[in-house]
């Protein structure tokens, strides 16, 4: 009897836990919306006006992709933003707000290079986005080239 009670309690905990997770996934989940319905703290004016100083070249996009998928610390960008940058990475399941969907041109075209630079360097208050202040400016600009490549319209 005691074992049955423990087993039933265990199943109930799993069921309730999964229901909560499902509810959290649907409430406020806008990672697949394009454009996304959310605001991010605006960077200081000096950053907003910054343009990526690196030429848009394959080598920079490739380095940015390496950072996004493997090398960025404390956590690789893909863990939250997903392999393809759609905001649906493995760790995004219980995040609110959801990570930015980099594949949405309608959203990404409204965000300046300087805003992206500032968010990457400082994190985003009120979201799970951490600071990557230890990354060199060059690496951040390479990452921005990669992020931009995800929302480009096919030519």
Keywords:
155 residues, mainly alpha, Cytochrome Bc1 Complex, Chain D, domain 2, 0% strand
Tell me the overall shape: globular
Task: Give the CATH class.
Answer: Mainly Alpha
Under the CATH scheme, the architecture is Orthogonal Bundle
- What is the succession of H and E elements? HHHHHHH
Residue fraction in strands: under 5%
Rg computed from alpha carbons, rounded to a whole number of angstroms: 19 Å
Assign the CATH topology.
Cytochrome Bc1 Complex, Chain D, domain 2
Low-confidence stretches: 4-30
Description of the structure:
- The chain has 7 helices and no strands.
- The model is unreliable at 4-30 (pLDDT under 50).
- It has a single domain (31-149), classed as Cytochrome c-like domain (Cytochrome Bc1 Complex, Chain D, domain 2), CATH 1.10.760.10.
- The protein has helices at 2-26, 45-48, 58-71, 78-81, 105-108, 113-122, 137-149.
- It has 155 residues and is mainly α.
- The termini are far apart.
């Amino acid at each position: 009897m005691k074992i049955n009670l423990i087993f039933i309690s265990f199943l109930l905990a799993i069921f309730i836990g999964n229901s909560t997770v499902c509810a959290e996934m649907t409430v406020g989940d806008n990672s697949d919306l394009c454009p996304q319905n959310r605001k991010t703290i605006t960077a200081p004016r000096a950053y907003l006006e910054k343009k990526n100083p690196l030429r848009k070249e394959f080598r920079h996009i490739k380095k940015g992709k390496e950072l996004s998928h493997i090398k960025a610390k404390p956590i690789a960008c893909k863990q939250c933003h997903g392999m393809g940058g759609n905001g649906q990475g493995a760790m995004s399941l219980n995040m609110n707000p959801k990570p930015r969907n980099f594949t949405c041109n309608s959203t990404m075209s409204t965000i300046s290079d300087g805003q992206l630079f500032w968010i990457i360097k400082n994190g985003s208050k009120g979201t799970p986005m951490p600071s990557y202040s230890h990354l060199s400016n060059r690496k951040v600009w390479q990452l921005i080239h990669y992020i931009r490549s995800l929302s480009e319209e096919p030519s």
